[in-house]
From TrEMBL:
GO terms, biological process: heme biosynthetic process
Official protein name in the record: Menaquinone-dependent protoporphyrinogen oxidase
Superkingdom, natural source: Bacteria
Native source species: Mycetocola miduiensis
SUPFAM superfamilies named among the record's database cross-references: Flavoproteins
Residues of the Flavodoxin-like domain: 3-169
GO molecular function, one term: menaquinone-dependent protoporphyrinogen oxidase activity
């Protein structure tokens, strides 16, 4: 199958996740294009879609939102998966005992579940380096109170990303096998 892995990334952590997902799908025999959401011009040449974005203040980046919202019909007619990256640190639960990854789901997951019926939605941990902040984000680096509480480092869980990519590849193989059986 031909799969589009599209991403919206501000500092590169989400791009790295998208590239890793693309590599995993390629290793399992799929033809994959990995590209930024803003560079996607048409979807019709793909059989399936994996779309992800960094999340800021519980929202996907604008380019990812635009990609989904402008292509609802095309996405809803094909297998689609959504992912997000954002939380940093290693804690599994927050101060209230709630799952950190579940609590970091972007608002769009619920909305897009109704619109495009994704086969899976996943939140992955991100990466944070206050020395790489730019633009308006630099204010965080100047505020010691915020800077001190933000865990710094690369917290992406490559094993979890690989497992998710494998599950997508397996499901795509199942879809392909079912299509062959029904046409033959």
């Amino acid at each position: 199958m031909k799969v589009l892995v599209a991403y919206a990334s501000k500092y590169g952590a989400t791009e790295g996740i998208a590239q890793r997902i693309g590599e995993g799908l390629r290793r399992r025999g799929h033809e994959v294009d990995v590209t930024r959401c803003e560079d996607v011009t048409e979807l019709s040449r793909f059989d399936a879609y994996v779309i992800g974005s960094a999340t800021y203040e519980f929202n996907w980046r604008k380019d990812a939102r635009k990609l989904v919202e402008r292509n609802v019909d095309a996405l809803a007619a094909h297998p689609v998966w959504l992912f997000s990256s954002g939380p940093v640190g290693t804690e599994k639960v927050d101060n209230e005992g709630k799952d950190v990854l579940k609590g970091a789901e972007p608002k769009q997951f619920h909305e897009y579940e109704e619109l495009v019926h994704p086969r899976g939605m996943q939140v992955f941990r991100g990466a944070y380096d206050h020395d790489k902040l730019r633009g308006a984000d630099r204010i965080i680096a100047w505020m010691p109170a915020i800077r001190d509480i933000m865990p710094q480092g690369d917290f992406r869980d490559w094993d979890a990303i690989d497992a998710w990519s494998s599950s997508i590849a397996y499901e795509l193989q199942t879809v392909t096998s079912t299509q062959r059986a029904s046409s033959g």
